[in-house]
Amino acid sequence: MASHKDSQFFEGGRSQNAVNGSGTSHGQWGRAWKADWFSLISIIFLLLSCPFIVYYFIMSCHQYNCSLSEPAVQLLTGKVRLLDIWNKTPSLTWKALILYTSWVLFQAFLFMIPDFCHKILPGFRGGVQEGAISPAGATLKYEINGLQAWLITHALWFATAYYFQWFSPTIIFDNWIPLLWCANILGYSVSIFVWLKAYFFPSNAKDCKFTGNFFYDFMMGIELNPRLGKWFDFKLFFNCRPGIIAWTLINLSYAAKQQELYGQVTNSMLLVNVLQGLYVLDCFWNETWYLKTIDIAHEHFGWYLAWGDCVWLPYLYTLQGLYLVFHPVQLATGYAVGILLLSLVGYYIFRTANHQKDLFRRTDGNCKIWGKKPKYIECVYTSVNGTKHHSKLLVSGFWGIARHFNYTGDLMGSLAYCLCCSFDHILPYFYIFFIGILLVNRCIRDEHRCSNKYGKDWKRYTETVPYRLFPGIF
């Protein structure tokens, strides 16, 4: 499903001078043009199973004390029926619908406000920024204001929940399942809308890809960058606004519920809030960099991103905090410090690797990485309009160790979140399993795309940097 954890777009830096010429790919790189039977079966399976997986995890916490096996065992042995479980599940409420609608509309409003943070925060790159070049040769501009939206949202949260006390800070946890139905309604509504939009009024018809298979096109998306007007970009909004900004608020609501139930907030809950909060803030501080990642630069916008950002991300990426509400864990000091160090080392690798690639791209290789002039491989690729572009693939710093070494740091941080929950249940460890599968899958998909895009130049690159994630292993 959708993920904010993504690889740096492989174009380490491209020449500002593009020349017309023929090439072998002619923009055929990117999302698949045809759906084979294996892809089709996989997509239908995901469309059917993913909503059930989210419901099963959340239901297991609320009805079975976070046991993933107990509901399945009781169903198989006939102790309960599906209808019994469903009847105990809170239904959609007007309160949840009003809360969720207000939340999304407020985030949409903040999304359209020009950024001021880049004017007052040294080193922050916000305001109007350019994205990556598309297969059709288009380069879009974005208003980067996610950090501003996050700051305004959280300032209002603390003011209204704690100072004015207009509502309890546990409001998200208390309405968690009714809000799930709202998130599903939005996820499916947006997915259907962008599917229809691609047929009747696409933002850029040349960057649309039709396989002719409804299920594949609906899930993986047809339009690369669907927009309403000049600035409302569906992909950037749903990837970086309602779900990601809510992530820290959801964790704060979990901490408030733990305080309400047990009279204290455990150090494990504090660690989850701090470590995941750091990741969210990093996402918004580096939102300009995010424009060059797979999600924005390559993925077409369909159910995979729309529903994934609305439902999968906020509900399954926050399982550690939810688990700690039902099973408060007080970690030994040494163990907590070890988790913190693991996370910080992983974050350092993740951020430094991405910074190296971003610096290399922005300076077109005229920089120093680890105190030396960086090494790179010159590449040429062609967009769909026949224009030939020049690019460079970095093979210095962390990018000389492995082709996706930022993912390695990412996995270390993801494991740290799970370790906060001790080892009594497997539920909070779903996150590391999912992220591991997702990132390996993205390695393979991204490299297939790059192979089609760069041809023999990509082969030279993989020979120079032979490992994907773990040197000597994979």
Describe this structure in words.
This protein is α+β, with helices and mostly antiparallel strands. Helix content is 58%, strand content 8%. It has 20 helices and 8 strands. The chain has helices at residues 37-64, 69-77, 82-87, 94-111, 117-120, 146-163, 171-174, 176-200, 214-220, 234-240, 242-262, 267-285, 287-290, 294-297, 303-316, 319-326, 333-362, 405-419, 430-454, 456-464, and strands spanning 13-14, 19-20, 127-133, 139-144, 227-228, 232-233, 376-382, 387-394. Strands 1, 2, 7 and 8 form a 4-stranded antiparallel β-sheet that branches. A two-stranded antiparallel ribbon has the order 3-4. A two-stranded antiparallel sheet has the order 5-6. Strand 5 (227-228) and strand 6 form a beta hairpin. Helix 11 packs antiparallel against helix 12. The longest helix has 30 residues, at 333-362. It is globular and about 60 Å long. The two termini are 23 Å apart. Residues 2-27 have low confidence and may be disordered. It is an enzyme of class 1 (oxidoreductase). Its EC number is 1.3.1.21.
